[in-house]
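quick one, 165 residues, struct below
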Amino acid sequence: MDNFNDLYNSQYKSVFRLAFRYLNDFENAADISQDVFIRFYKNLGRLRVNRGVKSWIRRVTINRCYDILRAKKRDRKLEQELIPGCMQMSDDTPAPQVAHLLQQTLEILAPRERTALVLTCQFGYSSKEAGKAMGCRSATVRVLAFKARDKIKALFRPDQEGWSQ
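---
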């Protein structure tokens, strides 16, 4: 029981940050964080310690985030709404507005692309660590992150159709 408490205390914040960054929803991130540790505690007897407890926790967190996103069925019209807003940004754009735009941009990405990008860019995971968390190979993580970056670059490219300067 002490080991579980130590693990909970050391990992709860990172689980919450990952869920919150992924969903941008405080309540859902808190619910997922609790659910991850409840699942972990219930499955203690079945887990293989040599396979990495932290990887298992990240994987369950990501899967729970996928579940939430599937349930919400996000509106894909966001991309069309985002493009005009991008051109209005300048160097003096307030930080909250930039953060909001970034979150909207991440929501446009497919869930696996977003996960690969967030794990590697924001949390600094190697592609191997992100692959373990996502349940895929490191090469797949690199491809997904590349596709995500490519989609984001395409959104902010002023030579795209529909952009006016």
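Residues 83 and 155 are 6 Å apart (CA to CA).
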